[in-house]
Give the backbone structure.
Amino acid sequence: MILNKDVEKILDVITEMSKEDNYYKLLEEILEIGMQISNCDGGTLYILNEDKLEFFFMITKSMNIKDGGVDKKINLPPVDINSPSVAALCAKSKKVINVSDVYSDKVYNWSGPMKYDALTGYHTQSVLVLPLFDKEKNVLGVMQLINAVLFKKVVPFSYDVEKTLYSLSSLSGVLLDNVNLYQNLKDLLDSFVKAMVKTIESRTPYNASHTANVAKLCNDFVDYLNLKNYDEIKPSEKEELVMAAMLHDIGKIIIKEDTLNKATRFASLLPLMNERYDLISLDLDNKYLNKLLNKEEYEKELNYINKIKEFVNRIENITFLNDDDLKFIEEIKNKEYNTKFGIKKIFEEKELECAYIKKGTLTAEERKEIEMHVSYTKDILNEIKFGKKYCHVKDIASNHHEYLDGSGYPLHLKDKELSKFVRIITIMDIYDSLRSSDRPYKKPIPVDKSLSILEEMSNEGKLDKDLVIKFKEYINNSL
């Protein structure tokens, strides 16, 4: 007859199965409950992986041993499913094995336990081995219990206990089935994320490591916050943040490659511009030879067009224009030459926009296009069913350019509208961009200067001041 307290324990397991996110932790608890119900001294939970039974969790109370589980892998070789081991035979036969005394038993091979006894001084006597299988009777693992105790003496596992634990092992099988399903779905999602990151990286060589860097910074900074007791961020929350970091630039898939990879001011326009200036020079040569220009006029015009060409090629590779540069652009912007090849302007409309870029390499239109990547990120992630576990990924990823004072983009969200995790990823994204060494249009900014920029932005009300202070502490402690 099943005791009321045992029924209660099994009901507790069923209740926990509906609430617990960490199924592996629940498996640990199931082994411990099985040991409580049977009042046994030892227990091992194996999980079947292909044709091997891997040690997942093991306890021996009399020897004060508790090994494995969620956070620690047991350093023992797995059991081959085709070996004569009792655990392997249980898995293959899908039947319960209940033996009162292994040393007098002639049916099964007990060389493993006997060898363990000889090495440790333990004495294995009664053993109960139960298969864990899913609703389709596929074996997923094995629960092995050792030395039932009654009045301080080792006794056989009773039939009532066996029946009770068989019910518990069935629950364990359902749980393992959920674990496998969850892991398969997680592996699928992880592989999708990696494929998306690889796609982004293949389109632009200039921030190929940015995604991985931001994800690592998020992961390590959260660990630091927890370690210092600055915050209590759950593993599931950290996992969600890291996934959002991996996907935060996914919208760049839609941005035109010419814009995404624009490392210089004129980029693909420059060869055509140089060709035009050479045609103007050639036309000047022709006019001089045909005496349409005298020597003084010819040299003056030729020197001027060469000066323009030299200037244009110089500013192509600089990302900041001074007042003199802007003044010269103003001087030449409307200049044009009537040549035998037609009217040749110094600047076409798009070229003049590029010439006037005071800082960086992008025109206002191109910068706006780049900024659209966060909106595209949100649109793409809207199409993915993340489920409850990753329900915040979309918002974290698509808001990483928002600032607390509302000056960010694209929605100009403010303070209370931005979660702690959005604030973290924003700081990590800016820091890695400042420190990046794989962008041809700028050199990496030193650590101290980068941290000063973050501090300045926090003082301006753009970034979370408390998080910036703690991030600076983290970076300085990690150097």
In short: Residues 204-258+369-478 form a domain with the Hypothetical protein af1432 fold (CATH 1.10.3210.10). Residues 315 and 325 are 8 Å apart (CA to CA). Residues 159-203 form the longest helix (45 residues). The mean pLDDT is 88.
